[in-house]
Amino acid sequence: MKKLTLLVLALTALISCSDDENDVITESTTLSQLEIDDLLFLREEEKLARDVYLFSYDKYGETIFNSIAQSEQQHMNSVLTLLNTYGIADPASSERGVFTNQALQSLYADLTNQSNISFLEALKVGATIEDLDLNDIHEDESNTTKEAILDVYEKLSCGSRNHLRSYINQLVLNGENYVPQFISLAEFTEVINSESERCGY
């Protein structure tokens, strides 16, 4: 009888542990609507950067646009991995220049129109996109505590800082300046005056 009682207690404890583990898994893989919205927007925002840079590369043939476009594809892949992990449908179209988010669709039209003006304007567009991306990711970081998401955000921020440095360097070489529109002047100054980083994605 004593052995049977111990067995029942052991099974009860095992079931309780299993329930606790399931609760942990459920909690860790459940996102708030704000977290979901941030990831959906970010997936297409990275696509926006890639597609605009490919537009500029097609027009001017300058390596900087193609190189950074390939990096943006890696950013897109990183966000897609998160979407798949959390079971969120991918909003990104496989077609260049096509977006589910209509604000990004309009922004794509505006940025490609500006990029079409000249090589220097295309560089300014590149700086603007990276400036905006950094600002948006800062806001996204404040909306989550999940390490997996924060890790991706930091890697994307690192990449955007490198991209911003590249565009600013090219603008300076061509006698042009860029004034940040989204991140603070202090952050902008720190970024462009620091060395390129290894981002690990």
TrEMBL record:
Iron-sulfur in keyword set: no
This protein's UniProt keywords: Signal
Pfam families xrefs: DUF2202
DUF2202 domain boundaries: 35-195
Signal peptide feature range: 1-18
Record-linked InterPro entries: DUF2202, Ferritin-like, Ferritin-like_SF
The UniProt record lists the keyword Signal: yes
Entry-linked Gene3D superfamilies: 1.20.1260.10
Protein name: DUF2202 domain-containing protein
Species assigned in the record: Lutibacter profundi
Taxonomy of the source species: Bacteria, Pseudomonadati, Bacteroidota, Flavobacteriia, Flavobacteriales
